[in-house]
Amino acid sequence: MTDESREETKAVEPPQETVSFAFDRLTVARFREVFPNARCSDTLQAWTVPGKTARRRIDRWLASEADRKRPYEEERGRDAYQFEPILSPYLQVYDRGFRIKTPFSRTVVDELRQIPFARWNSDDKVWEVPYASYDDLQHRWEAIEKAAKRAEPEERRKRAEARKGTEEEAKAKRRTSERNKKRLPVPSDDLPPPGRPVATTAFGIVVVTDITGELVNPEEVAEHHPNADDEHVWAGWRAATLEELVHTWPARAEPGEYERIRGWWQPTLEELRAARTAAKSRERRRDARNASTRPST
């Protein structure tokens, strides 16, 4: 396949979302009836559903499945909670199950995504878990609560105070300074595609804006870019927008050793999902700032 045909294929391949649930023949049959184009991925250990509205359709299906299981499993979950309740300021009980509200933590999000039928309520800014999934929630709660406590502002402040004057703080400042330069060393004979999101070792998913042609001094950047050599040149970059990330087709496999050493690769689905979440947060903060500075009429 030529580079042009690859570009054409990537341009027409739709975005996709993933969903996982406990295997059950009848549940799979119902899922395939609603999502006939879904495919099971052994690599991701999940089903992939194509389409721009896949996330909303998946959430609706998860909610309907939770309703279906409620008459049988909800009672068992309620009994389990009564017998061995989770007592935590991060968890509240409501009529359909549990609501979990914590400071933002990537670990918390990753743990909750593994719980069957857990869903994010964007209106109330909480995660909701039905009674039927109480066993799974209880199994993961220790990790969730530990990560939530670490994410509390006071705990973050204490860790920041403890780092003051240390080499760790100095390294963090140097990393921030390097990131603010918006530059990336790339092999002069294997350049990343400009204008398209790529995953990088140093800065996550970015969009390369230009290749300056300026040679990299490996000794000066060894701390942040240990694989750079005197055959690397500087490329400028910017953060990828949410729209760009949504329309980026994920790689079919994890990056290999060559891609890691090279410093850039086609992003994986998990990398894209994390980047999309971060981009949504950036855009919400930007919209909130714009709304606060907009003159009232």
Give the fraction of residues assigned to helices: 40-55%
How many helices in DSSP terms?
11
Query: How does the overall form come out from the CA principal axes?
Result: globular
The fraction of residues assigned to DSSP E strands is 15-25%
User: Which structural class is indicated by helix and strand composition?
Assistant: alpha+beta
Question: Biggest sheet: strands, sense, closure?
Answer: 5 strands, antiparallel
User: How many DSSP E strands?
Assistant: 12
Oligomeric status: single chain
- List the uncertain runs: 1-12
Topology as H/E string?
HEHEEHEEHEEHHHEEEHEHHEH
Mean pLDDT: 85
Compact summary:
By secondary structure, the chain is an alpha+beta fold. The protein is built from 11 helices and 12 strands.
Descriptive account of the structure:
The protein has 11 helices and 12 strands. 24% of the residues are buried. By secondary structure, it is of the alpha+beta class. It has a 5-stranded antiparallel beta sheet with strand order 8-11-10-9-12. The chain has a 4-stranded antiparallel beta sheet with strand order 4-5-7-6. Residues 1-12 have low confidence and may be disordered. Strand 9 and strand 10 form a beta hairpin. The chain is globular, with a radius of gyration of 23 Å. The chain has helices spanning 3-12, 25-34, 54-83, 106-113, 134-150, 153-163, 167-180, 218-221, 242-246, 257-262, 269-293; strands at 16-19, 39-41, 46-50, 91-94, 97-100, 119-121, 126-130, 183-187, 197-200, 204-215, 232-239, 264-265. Helix 4 runs antiparallel to helix 5. The termini are far apart.
